Amino acid sequence: MTPTAKVRTADAGAATAWNAPAEALLTAADGTRVHAVHTPGRTPGRTPGRSGSGTVFVVAHGFTGAVERPAVLRAVRVLSHHGAVVVLSFRGHGRSGGLSTVGDREVLDLEAAVAWARSLGYRRIATVGFSLGGAVAVRHAALHGGVAAVAAVSAPARWYYRGTAPMRRLHWVVMRPLGRVVARYGLHTRIDPRDWAEVPLEPVAAAGLLGRTPLLVVHGDRDPYFPLVHPRSLHRAAQAAGVDSELWIEPGFGHAENAAGEPLLDRIGARLAARAAAGGATG
């Protein structure tokens, strides 16, 4: 389990400048510095950014992603038509400090971004995670709470899955010294060489602990990393525990933010904004 100490924000810069994106270097509960960017909502007919009392999406990228990656920027741009957006780079990625723990302590990074979004005045916070970020978003909502809705896109249900060739390659990257060198210099991702001290709560178990937080599970039928047993397991676990869960199996969709086109991102933003609004403000 991950620690749940308070998250401090620092060096927020233009965090209250509503008319332009703001950049921040946040401090997670374990001291790791987390790079995040805030983009005001661009809802037609409204003053840009004056949605501080409305919905903000906190976007969590997949493994090897970062704030500045084109696919992440596309997701931010599309989601911003349905609310404001805060996007972060997980530890070991992009301009954030620390080393990637591949889904464990990243919940602290997401909590730091959620806390920052709340400090900007947003009353409804919805998390949107892709692949690894989807697993982190579900675990974060179960362990920390405080969000109005969660979307897990292309997320795994369980750890250590090696049933596809891409996942076997990923395990080599994460677990072998040469693989971590490749990740650092080829994929710009810095991975912690140490094993997990304790196996983190699996996403499928976390899905059953969401309580009143609605869950949207989105997965492609052409996902090369995780077959459909993963989204179906997440959805079933949530439903079995009484969680309000939806499952979208998208024909022709591949994996995570890199394969997510604007129409799908637009649908996710619209649906998640509606679910968050129906749930009311978060604490």
What does this 3D model show about the protein?
Keywords: Hydrolase. GO terms for molecular function: hydrolase activity. With 283 residues, the protein is α/β, with parallel strands linked by helices. It has nine helices and nine strands. It has helices spanning 70-79, 106-119, 132-143, 165-175, 177-186, 203-207, 229-240, 256-259, 262-279; strands at residues 8-10, 22-27, 33-39, 55-60, 84-88, 124-130, 149-153, 215-220, 245-250. Strand 2 and strand 3 form a beta hairpin. Helix 1 (70-79) packs across helix 9 (262-279) and helix 4 crosses helix 5. The radius of gyration is 17 Å and the shape is globular. The two termini are 22 Å apart.
Distinctive features:
alpha/beta; 18% strand; 34% helix; 283 residues; hydrolase; disordered N terminus; single chain; Rossmann fold; 9 helices; hydrolase activity; 9-stranded mixed β-sheet
The named CATH superfamily: Alpha/Beta hydrolase fold, catalytic domain
Report the total helices: 9
Question: What is the helix/strand order?
Answer: EEEEHEHEHEHHHEHEHH
Task: Name the beta content range.
Answer: 15-25%
Mean pLDDT: 89
Total number of strands: 9
Sheet with the most strands, sense and barrel status: 9 strands, mixed
Task: Count up the domains.
Answer: 1
Overall geometry: globular
Uncertain spans, ≥5 residues at pLDDT below 50? 1-20, 45-53
CATH architectural group? 3-Layer(aba) Sandwich
Percent of residues in helical segments?
25-40%
N/C terminus separation: 22 Å
CATH class: Alpha Beta
CATH topology: Rossmann fold
Give me the oligomer status. Answer: single chain
**Category from helices, strands and their pairing:** alpha/beta
Gyration radius from CA atoms, angstroms: 17 Å
Q: Identify the strand order in the major beta sheet.
A: 1-2-3-5-4-6-7-8-9
